[in-house]
Specification:
41% of the residues lie in helices and 12% in strands. By secondary structure, it is an alpha/beta fold. It holds the Pfam family Methyltransf_16.
Amino acid sequence: MPSYSLEEAISTIRDQYFALVPARLLRLPPPPTLASSAGQAHLARLLLDERRFPQPEDGYRRLFWRSMLRELESGLRDLEGEADDLDLEIDERFYELLAGLMIADIPLGSMAEAAALQLGHHILRNRAQLDITTLMGTISSSGRSRGRILELGAGTGFLSCLLVQQGHEVTATDLGEVLGGGVPPLDRLRHNVALNKLDGQIRVESLDWMDAARGLSERPDIWDSILTNPPDTIIAADVIYDPDLIPPLVCTLSTLLSSPTTSTIPRQAIIAATVRNAQTLSLFTQCCSESGLEVVDIELPPLDPEQPTFWDSGLDVSVPVRIMRIVHRGT
């Protein structure tokens, strides 16, 4: 780890904590430094005493504090017998916090996946290649603005939160209910949007891809609302993973991209897909072709691991991600 002051090193831990860097990839000072009286005091002040920022979900916090306590215990063993720290103990508040999180036992579900992180990187750094522009006057390579965006399968809402802060008019969508119970994706999405204090800026709606194949009169009202004023760009990340979901996904894309509009802006979808199974991606492109959709891979500069846009999650550069532009052949 570079040579920082102790306070700077602990501040870096705080930054990684709020960036949801996986516990196994945290950049930490040496364990004895972390476990020292001053190290623990700074850690407690920055992560326990200060409550200026919304806390990550309990699942992440549980993994984070497990890792931190392992490091603290290791550092304490290394410091045994040193004159300055003869009576040193680990702050009980760290143990109490982890114990409470273990009792809560809420599953981890707030971390952005590789596809969303990579697409977010390119939205910030390679906007022209994506042909995504803001409502604040930036002109795309086509010379026209693409300010209105709809996200499919928004999940945590990472991309929607990023885009609305770039000046876009954003609608984030996900399932409003799930079979077998559990927390509906839409509830988690609303929660994360509210945590980022963007609930007044992002429109959050339930959208089931299965409804795309229904007749106009059979679809929920949200479809009519969206199609009356369709988005300029549809975005989605990590939605191509289940072969059974590909037909409804493609039907949804086709419906959104081909609906009548008075706009002169050619509509597009930008899909970032983690390459898990080549056959699944092949099925997706085949289904798109059969539905009158053209799929083109977007050529983008590789990510620089030395200058990451986001904290290195171990996913950004190691996991292959395919970013595609999809348009309706009739537009």
